[in-house]
Amino acid sequence: MKFNTLELTRIWAAVTGVSLALWYFAAVYLDLQPTALLPMLVTAIGGFELFLFGQDQWLKRRGKHG
Q1: Has residue 62 got a pLDDT over 70?
Q2: How far apart are CA 57 and CA 50, in angstroms?
Q3: Cα 51 from Cα 17, distance rounded (Å)
Q4: For residue 65, with 0-12 CB atoms within 10 Å meaning exposed, 13-18 middle and 19 or more buried, which class applies?
Q5: What is the mean pLDDT of the segment spanning 25-45?
């Protein structure tokens, strides 16, 4: 499989977001104090992915309906 630059960016964002979310929940589970930056990073990456997903859906519909 060959991915373009946008697809590679999305893959890296997804991997990074899942890793950070696991790190956050591990810190909460182990009763450690997670930094305030960690949930903000997870939210920002999640927002980026949701935006790109919505954009993909919009472009697919636009292509079918003119």
Answers
A1: yes
A2: 11
A3: 14
A4: exposed
A5: 90
pLDDT at 30 over 90: yes
- The one-character DSSP state at 36 is T
Query: Alpha helices, DSSP H only, in the chain?
Result: 5-29, 37-65
Q: Which of 53, 56, 17 is nearest to 38 (CA)?
A: 17
- The pTM for the full model equals 0.70
pLDDT of 66 reads 56
Distance between CA atoms of 58 and 64, rounded to whole angstroms?
Answer: 10
Q: Nearest Cα to 52, choosing from 22, 24, 12?
A: 12
Domain ranges in the chain?
5-65
Residue for token pair 């890296």:
12
Cα 29–43–61 angle (5° rounding)? 130
